[in-house]
Amino acid sequence: CGQVLPEGHKAPADEQWTTGIFGCAEDPESCWTGLFCPCVLFGRNVQALREDIPRTRPCTCHAVCIEGGIALAILTAIFHGVDPDTLILIGEGLVCSWWICSQYTSIIREKLQKKYHLEVLLSLFHSFLCMCHD
Question: What NCBIfam families does the record tag this protein with (predicted)?
Fold first, then answer.
C-alpha cells in the first residue's frame, strides 16, 4: 500500500502446514469431498480467500475444466471409436483441460499461501498433477 514500515518491522514467518502432504485422511470430510467432489472443495478454498465470491462460481469453473474434459473424452470415444488417432485427440483434450485448471488453481493456492503465511512446499509439477485437491 506504499506505507513506510518502522525500522524494526519483520515480515511474518512462514508457518508450517498443520498436516503433511499426504495427511488429508486426518480431516475425513475434506478427504472425501476432495476425492469425490474436488470442485466443491476448491470452491470452499476460494470462498475462504475472498468472501465476496460465492463458492459456486469457482466450483463451476473447476467442474467445466476437469469434469467437462473427462466428459468430452468419453463422448469422443463413443462417437468416434477408439483408435490411435482418437486416443491422441482424447489425450490432448484431457491434458489441455487439466493444464488450464492447474493454472487457475495454482493462482488460488499461491494467494492462500500468502494470506496465511504458509510454507511453499508444492512445485509446479505437483500443481499440475494434484490440482483437483486444492
Answer: A_thal_Cys_rich
- Residue span of the structural domain in which 117 resides: 25-133
Q: Is residue 55 part of a domain?
A: yes
| Angle formed by the axes of helices 56-80 and 38-49, nearest 10° | 150
Domain count, the chain: 1
Listed residue (96, 106, 104, 100) closest to 126, CA to CA: 106
pTM, two decimal places: 0.62
Residues 39, 108, 29, 55, Cα dihedral to 10°: -60
What tens digit of pLDDT does each residue of 29-86 get? 888 888 888 888 888 888 888 888 888 888 887 778 778 888 888 888 898 888 888 8
**Cell, residue 9:** 518491522
Contact predicate 21/121, CB 8 Å: yes
